[in-house]
Amino acid sequence: MGDDVSDPRVPVPDRLTLARYAGDGAAYGGVRSVVLDDGSERGIRVLEFRTGGGLRFDVLVDRAMDIGLAEFDDVSVGWRSATGFVHPGLHENADEDGLSWLRSMSGLVVTGGLDHTLFGGEVDASHYAYPPRPTVRHGLHGRVGNIPARLIGYGQEWVDGRAVLWAEGEVRQATNFGEHLVLHRRIEVDLGGTEIRLTDEVRNAGFERTPHMFLYHVNVGWPLLDRGVRFVADIAETLWQTDSVAEQGIDHLVFDAPVRSAIEQVYEHRLVPDADGRFVVGLHNDTLGLAFELVLDPAAFPCFFEWLNLREGAWALGLEPSTHHVAGDAAAREDGSMIWLEHGESRRYDTVFRFSRSTSA
Q1: Cβ neighbours of residue 299 under 8 Å, at least 6 residues apart?
Q2: Residue 10 in domain
Q3: Which of 47, 98, 289, 326 could anchor a disulfide with 120, C-beta 3.0 to 4.6 Å?
């Protein structure tokens, strides 16, 4: 990108200035805990982040601490689907042949995992040594996105002279005679900042060797996603795509209008790291002068999918960094790429969500 013009309209105060001018630091920005209280969202704990730099977003504590609403300069970035942010107590985990995950899919970030991602199916479970259940059946993108977190804390702290807004929690996916995986999630953003730093660690707290798959479904919707908006990534090659790509012939690099009853289009791209050794993918809206980008660790997320939901009433672009290729669970076990965690072993994921007012290439 070109020159960054993301400076907030009000200069970011230092600690003394903030204390002198405001009895409450929330006068500039902060984190507030609320509870949603209507419809299928009723009862969900939410942490509302306001940076003072034009960025605001919601952390859905009871939905794996995923990010729901996300706005930059009052423009909605995170996709708002018709499902809303469904309370996990209403989630239909095993219904519709494993596709019921789609009934609670909304927001900027929906996490997939912790032991399964991608399409569902039945796989061997003999490693859990429980004869009554020789196999386990998974639904689309696993269970973790509909599990409430144990909130460790949230607030504002000063680090090397800058104020950091933060939240931290733990999501436990466990059953008897099965997986016991723990996701430790920390979300940070600087006061006045326009970048969200997401740090995840997934650990096997059980004593059986356990498969691990992980994915972020990062969903961008209107009005940041609009006609003429560009998908930007350094793509070495496209490894796979759905049949709908050739059948529909709809561009995946520059977007047009929603299409009646369009079939989803999915691509697996092999990305080229930038000069810092990171994958950078994003969406640039030149009309609004705004951009949204993901900065990814290739060692953690070697695979990347682009998901296009192009139909009327549900228009969205999904950016999906993944630990595994599109063939999924059974194929990963077959070709040896499945991640197996022994007791106490863990995997770490560091990702940056970058919002900018500059869209020059």
Answers
A1: none
A2: no
A3: 98
Phi, psi of 148 (to 5 degrees): -65, 150
**Which domain does 264 fall in, by range?**
15-356
Output the domain CATH number for residue 233: 2.70.98.10
What would you report as the CA-atom Rg of the chain, rounded to the nearest whole angstrom? 20
Residue position matching structure tokens 């009871």: 62
Burial of 210 (0-12, 13-18, 19+ CB in 10 A): buried
- How many whole angstroms separate alpha carbon 20 and alpha carbon 18? 6
Q: Is the pTM of this model over 0.90?
A: yes
What's the CA angle centered on 91, arms 99 and 147, to 5 degrees?
Answer: 105
Q: DSSP letter string over 167-207?
A: EEEEEEEE-TTS-EEEEEEEEEEETT--EEEEEEEEEE-SS
Is residue 141 within 8 A of residue 217, CB to CB? The reply is yes
Q: What is the pLDDT of residues 58-117, one digit of tens each?
A: 999 999 999 999 999 999 999 999 999 999 999 987 789 889 999 999 999 999 999 999
Structural domains in the chain (count): 1
